[in-house]
Amino acid sequence: MTTTRTEESFGLLQEITAVAGLQTAGAEPIRLAENDLWRLPGKVVVRIARAGQEEAASREVAVARWLAENNVPAVRPLPMEQPVHAGGRAATFWELLPPHRHGTEADLAPLLRQLHDLPEPPFTVGKLAPFVRLAERLTAARSVSEDNRRWLLRHLERLRQAWGNLPVGRPECVIHGDAWRGNCAVTDAEVLLMDFERTSIGLPEWDLVSTAVAHDTFGHLSQDDYNRYCNLYGYDVMTWQGYPTLRSIRELRLVTFAIQIADHDPDALDQAHYRIDCIRGRRGPRPWGWEAVG
To answer: Does residue 27 contact residue 96 with C-beta atoms inside 8 Å?
Structure first.
């Protein structure tokens, strides 16, 4: 009998909760993706990291506790020794948020400003790695032609060189690393940052480019809403000479993510191929109207 994705994840959850001394009775999946999220009774969320992400899991907890100490609104880890290791995976435990919605770019901007203004933390968070896993995704991809694979790998190398020759930007600081509106939650009481898997020391422009791409590449964010985001943060990354390079890196990341999804989900295939055509110059100028996958 074939084990479903949910059954596989639940088996792992049982191993993890046994080590942590918690019960799985009444557990409900929240999202099963690169990281598996489960809700436990007692308003507990378990986040099971993908294999090989033990260091990132530890960093997430440390960052969240540091943000609490600095009065930055963010999701909070439970006051326990963590992460917990079982079944070859690392898991972290968090307070369940009250009813909430995803934030908007206007909700996100002040939180990023607050984060970027903090001094560096007293623990290692590592340096921004904008190209992490891109070559691996492209090499392993089954849903692209060899011609597209070769072009994308050459494009990756061009962007590595451009990254090494960026013009001077704003001073490096602690950055979120994946700063889009989906990583911001709005409750009745407050707006919270979440998901610190990619938090690091790096260019603050990297955090800002995600919203710029939502406007510039996707075409989903109006000019007025983008202007409001920039005003609330206090800077428009699109005015920086290094912006086109960061935009292209972000776009390539979004292309490889779509390819990775398409390898397992045929419904994502058209979008993956469309994104490739766009960055290869086959679909005219931006915005390209990219749609979500996964």
So the answer is: no
Q: Please report the pLDDT score of residue 5 as a whole number.
A: 87
Q: Taking 90 as the threshold, does the pLDDT of residue 294 lie above it?
A: no
Q: Does residue 293 fall inside a structural domain?
A: no
The residue type at 270: D
* Residue that finishes a domain, picked among 96, 121, 151: 96
User: Phi then psi for 188, rounded to 5 degrees?
Assistant: -65, -25
Which pair of structure tokens corresponds to residue 186? Answer: 């709005």
Is residue 73 domain-shared with residue 161, that is, in the same domain? no
Residue type at 203 in one-letter notation: L
Burial 89-124 (b: 16+ CB within 10 A, else e): bbbbbbeeeeebeebbbbbbbebbeebbeeeebeee
Which of 96, 114, 141 is a domain's end point? 96
DSSP 239: G
User: Same structural domain for residues 37 and 176?
Assistant: no
Query: Does residue 291 fall inside a structural domain?
Result: no
Count of other CB atoms within 10 angstroms of residue 8: 12
At position 227, the amino acid (one-letter code) is N
Alpha-carbon distance 34 to 48, whole Å? 9
CB 14 within 8 A of CB 8: no
- Asked if residue 199 and residue 171 are part of one domain, the reply reads yes
Are residues 122 and 73 part of one domain? no
pLDDT class for 1, splitting at 50, 70, 90? low
Coil, helix or strand at residue 14: helix
Domain identity same for 88 and 134: no
Q: Domain of residue 84: give its range.
A: 5-96
Query: pLDDT of 182-229, one tens digit each?
Result: 999 999 999 999 999 999 999 999 999 999 999 999 999 999 999 999
Q: Is the pTM of this model over 0.85?
A: yes
